[in-house]
Design brief:
The complex is a heterodimer. Helices cover 30% and strands 26% of the residues of chain A. By secondary structure, chain A is an alpha+beta fold. Chain B is an alpha+beta fold. Chain B is globular and about 45 Å long. The chains are: A alpha+beta, B alpha+beta. Chains A and B meet through β14, α7, β20, α11 and α12 of A and β2 and α3 of B. Bound molecules: FE2/S2 (inorganic) cluster (FES) and fe (ii) ion. The site of FE2/S2 (inorganic) cluster has 10 residues of chain A, from loops.
Chain lengths: 422, 159
């Protein structure tokens, strides 16, 4: 096993090739957890997962057991689910509502802001200062339009600096709801035996679908034809071409721009949805928002999908094991008919009995095995997009499938993995 | 109300037959066991999750299940290279009369899946509504409660 010293991690990235060790080396993984997940902004959850005071969810990101709560003051907090007495855990459920967290070991009890407010046998303790023994808060928590991010590092760029143009995409994701609010539902979870970056890279990789998802796409189109006639072909603009962009440090997005035709548009067949957007934004913008078909990736662990209307959180467990949690979102102000369908479409897309994500999970397993064999030293990201250029919004933009965004991701990866990054 | 010994036997044989069809990838014959208005349902996270409100691991009707079987036969389906090998173990079968001449059947289920050098197992409980059509039992609904439904999952075969 190669041992990489300090900034040597950066040398694993060689322009349009990367050393396969970035996917297979436990040492690289450990350093990624420290230098990337432990340093930059990581996505924790959407505030609508904890809509009411006392609501909480527990979430594991890497080695960190976290707790996202909404306290009686209405604020969302991110705390460590680790008791300040001797380190047991204080919350045992994936989600729920409570006014306190009692550690089952010796009964220390905390409120939903993390303050320690009860200690059995307190009178017999050596000078225990309860006020400094609340649950440990993550160093920084910032929220953009209800998307809650945390940084385990007290210093570094602000969330706005980290997101860059990403704030615009999160805004649009949210503003597609007539009420300008989206509401997360209970998540679907999947896992695979592969590195976390395989999922991140895959999400905007438009080189793969026709091959890897060939069976799902061709059978899906066939079934749609039997049911509704040839709406797929007729709804697909023949001149359409997908646009991709990289922005901020290592974030990216794909605008499918009509190339996927009516796929998943059944969810929006209730005319009241478009009407509500028209009343709000006028007919032109409303139609744009209705048709919007974007994949958005916020480095390192958040993926969003406008048309299926869900977001996914990547949790790296080990160098060769990853868990992903997908939250279908309801659109505030849309009918139950619309929202039911959105939730069902997301589930059908990502679940273990679903029809698309299972293909990707299979590929991730194959890739991990292949790279672990050591047979190939370098992985290739050589595909160029069409007309690559900087656009007026400061994003790097191109058309069609490419591996350009992976090259951006690895530039940022190399920067974050160096000793002096912040 | 408990059903007769003969009917209990018939129901058990029906469940074993269904399992055998799935294990042997006789998907088209499996489809013939379903009514046209079948609901195939695998709840997510908790058993009493609400279909109007929550994502499901599966919630499919006849057309979706037929599409699934076509995908399983497709030569370019990556999840079938090679296909998972499965065994369905069925125990604790109970049957009672349901509405409109239907039977309500419950059993425990343990599915073993061998895939890519790993064997994973999925214990759970299945609940069926069986309806008689053209002299044979058909599945009008099947709900599978996995005790693993709150964990991150790897791809599942038809349970
Ligand atoms: S470890 Fe929590 S009360 Fe002792
Ligand atoms: Fe994919």
């Amino acid at each position: 096993m190669t041992v990489y010293a300090g900034s040597a991690y950066a040398s694993l990235v060689m322009g349009d090739q990367v050393d396969s060790g970035v996917y297979t080396s436990p040492e690289v993984f450990e350093q990624e957890m420290r230098r990337i997940f432990g340093r930059t902004w990581i996505f924790i959850g959407h505030a609508s997962e904890v809509p009411n005071p006392g609501d909480f969810k527990t979430v594991q990101i890497g080695q960190w057991p976290l707790l996202m709560t909404r306290h009686s003051d209405g604020l969302v907090r991110v705390l460590f689910n680790v008791c300040r007495h001797r380190g047991s855990k204080v919350c045992y459920d994936a989600f729920g509502n409570t006014n306190s967290f009692m550690c089952m070991y010796h009964g220390w009890t905390y409120d939903t802001a993390g303050a320690l407010n009860a200690v059995p046998l307190l009178d017999h303790m050596n000078d225990l200062d309860m006020s400094s023994h609340g649950l440990v808060k993550v160093a920084r928590v910032e929220t953009h339009r209800d998307f809650v991010f945390a940084s385990l590092s007290p210093e570094g760029p602000t969330l706005a600096e980290h997101l860059g143009r990403g704030t615009y995409y999160l805004d649009v994701m949210t503003d597609r709801a007539p009420d300008r609010e989206i509401h997360a539902t209970r998540p679907i979870r999947y896992e695979y035996d592969g590195n976390w970056k395989l999922q991140f890279e895959n999400y905007c990789d438009n080189y793969h679908p026709w091959y890897l998802h060939n069976s799902a796409i061709s059978v899906g189109v066939q079934m749609m034809k039997e049911k509704y006639g040839d709406i797929f072909a007729s709804s697909r603009r023949s001149d359409a071409i997908a646009v991709e962009r990289s922005f901020g440090a290592a974030h990216s997005m794909t605008d499918f721009a009509g190339t996927r035709g009516a796929m998943w548009m059944d969810a929006y067949s209730d005319p009241a949805f478009l009407e509500a957007l028209e009343r709000r934004d006028g007919p032109e913008r409303a139609k744009e928002l209705l048709d919007l078909d974007w994949h958005i990736m916020i480095y390192p662990n958040l993926l969003l999908h406008t048309r299926l209307n869900h977001y996914r959180v990547i949790n790296p467990v080990a160098v060769d094991h990853t868990e992903v949690t997908a939250y279908a979102c309801k659109l505030g102000g849309a009918s139950d008919q619309v929202n039911d369908r959105l939730v069902k479409n997301t589930a059908h897309h990502v679940s273990a009995l679903g029809e698309i994500q299972v293909d990707d999970m299979q590929a991730f397993n194959w890739v991990q095995k292949g790279l672990t064999s050591g047979a190939v030293e370098r992985v290739n990201f050589k595909l160029r997009g069409g007309n690559e250029h900087w656009n007026d919004d400061g994003e790097y933009e191109w058309t069609g499938a490419s591996e350009t965004m992976m090259r951006f991701q690895y530039q940022e990866w190399a920067r974050l993995m160096s000793d002096e990054a912040r | 109300m408990v059903v007769s010994r003969d009917l209990q036997h018939e129901v058990e044989q029906f469940l074993f037959h269904e399992a055998e069809l799935l294990e042997n990838r006789r998907f088209e014959e499996w489809l013939e066991l379903l009514t046209r208005d079948v609901i195939y349902w695998v709840p997510n996270i908790r058993d009493d999750s609400d279909i109007s409100d929550e994502a499901m691991i599966s919630y499919e009707g006849y057309d979706e299940l037929r599409a699934r079987t076509v995908r399983l036969r497709h030569p370019l389906n990556p999840t079938q290279k090679p296909p998972p090998r499965t065994r369905h173990f069925i125990t604790n079968v109970s049957a009672e009369a349901g509405e409109g001449g239907e039977l309500r059947v419950r059993c425990n289920l343990l599915v073993y899946v061998s895939k890519d050098g790993k064997v994973v197992h999925h214990p759970g409980t299945s609940e069926y509504r069986l309806r008689e059509e053209d002299g044979s039992w058909r599945i009008a609904s099947k709900k599978v409660y996995l005790i693993t439904n709150d964990l991150p999952l790897t791809p599942l075969p038809i349970m």
